[in-house]
Write a structure and sequence with these properties.
The complex is a heterodimer. By secondary structure, chain A is mainly β. Chain A has a single domain, classed as Sandwich (Immunoglobulin-like). Chain A is 0% helix and 50% strand. By secondary structure, chain B is mostly beta strands. In chain B, strand 5 and strand 6 form a beta hairpin. The chains are: A mainly beta, B mainly beta.
């Protein structure tokens, strides 16, 4: 059954399409941001991070974009696969040691 | 082990009983965190350890909650006189340095159900 996010915003994409998951963060003093993926019954899994002195960072099939002017973070997943289906969380560290998580977005990939 | 290990994976307890949740962080990670995730919610910060000391306990919901860390490694989260609202998944994470230099790596959590 559902273990995370019964009422989360949901993004549905077709397999092979690109996905864009957005996140608005709250603290203009935040200087480190992380995207996590959480599958049902598991803990959050690190995907990619970015520091505030950058506006873009690329990984394998993933890209994170940071817009500090509007306090916006996005995660782009290229060629989305069924295994990408999960809940995605952005997290910020506002110059302290405490990671603050957003509410999450559920990504559903259909064939 | 290669990752953060938490035990038990599931715990069912009666209201009013005490529970202890255990976390084994990644070897060499100096920082350790406890978070709580309720059904349909995001992750709620509870407490942070750097070594054996806890510079930030601000997220502990009440004095029924406590945590300790010994030897700069294993941590236990104790909930006394459990209540039904304590039911949640309790997640532990560790990081190499604990400041804005390294990401947190999470375990799979302990699902606590208070009946």
């Amino acid at each position: 059954g559902e273990s995370v996010g019964l009422h989360l915003p949901t993004l549905s994409v077709q397999e092979g399409d690109n996905s864009i998951i957005n996140c608005a963060y709250s603290n203009s003093a935040s200087d480190y941001f992380i995207w996590y993926k959480q599958e049902s019954g598991k803990g959050p899994q690190f995907i990619i991070d970015i520091r505030s002195n950058m506006d873009k960072r690329q990984g394998q099939r993933v890209t994170v974009l940071l817009n500090k002017t509007v306090k916006h973070l996005s995660l782009q997943i290229a060629a989305t696969q069924p295994g990408d289906s999960a809940v995605y969380f952005c997290a910020e560290i506002p110059n302290t040691d405490k990671l603050i998580f957003g509410t999450g977005t559920r990504l559903q990939v259909f064939p | 082990g290669a990752g953060v290990s938490q035990s038990p994976s599931n715990k069912v307890t009666e209201k009013g009983k005490d529970v202890e949740l255990r976390c084994d962080p990644i070897s060499g990670h100096t920082a350790l965190y406890w978070y709580r995730q309720s059904l349909g919610q995001g992750l709620e910060f509870l407490i942070y350890f750097q070594g054996n000391s806890a510079p930030d306990k601000s997220g502990l919901p009440s004095d029924r909650f406590s945590a300790e860390r010994t030897g700069g490694s294993v941590s236990t989260l104790t909930i006394q006189r459990t209540q039904q609202e304590d039911s949640a998944v309790y997640l532990c994470a560790s990081s190499l340095m604990g400041r804005t230099n390294s990401p947190l790596h999470f375990g799979n959590g302990t699902r606590l159900t208070v009946t």
